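Lecture 7 notes: from sequence to structure.
We start with the chain below.
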Amino acid sequence: MSIPYETGRAGRRSKKSAREIAYDFIEERILKGLFEPGEFLDETELAAAIGVSRTPIREALHRLRAERFIDLQPRRGAQVRNITPVEMDEVYETRIVIETAAYERICRNQKPVPNLADEILQQMEVAGDQEDWAAFGQLDQRFHGLLVHGAGNSVLYHLHETLRPQHVRIAIRAIQESPQRRGTIDQEHRQILRALRSFDISTASQVLIKHLRNVPEVVEALDN
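Predicted structure tokens for the same chain:
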């Protein structure tokens, strides 16, 4: 199974379909906060801005709904979803289950953690220095996804990937509301890496649980 992180999203084929172009355009703006939670998206305006017909816009919106970026309201159209504190808590709880299971497989089978994990952390540091929180959140998901992928269980990896949109949006919102946590996030990531490379499941799991904890500033922001 090839690792889908070597090139990342930017490494896709240059020739994209109109639907992919529309999807990338809308997703990027949701992640960057240019389309805010609760905002309705106008198909005609999107089509004009992107330079495509309304059909690929609708197709992109249906995919974004499936990935829980938006809701499609009857007679009102597409509305950007707001992530609630309850949803954040549920995502963290689910991730702990999935990622702990992946760590157990890595340690039990003594699977190597790829050096790409270190490269992603370096990229996160650059994104943080530039206050590019959208990139920071996407890299955070790539880091955790890489570790789950490395466990060699395709079902675990698929389940983890279904949480990608929520994971990324929560990660972005968390660092936006509490940028001073950058150092803590990096430290915990590196602690997880060291534990996995020494096949120490106890430490890796403990750090993960501490890592995926609710940040009061984020809970308050999401609750408003």
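Points to note: Residues 85-108 form the longest helix (24 residues). The radius of gyration is 18 Å.
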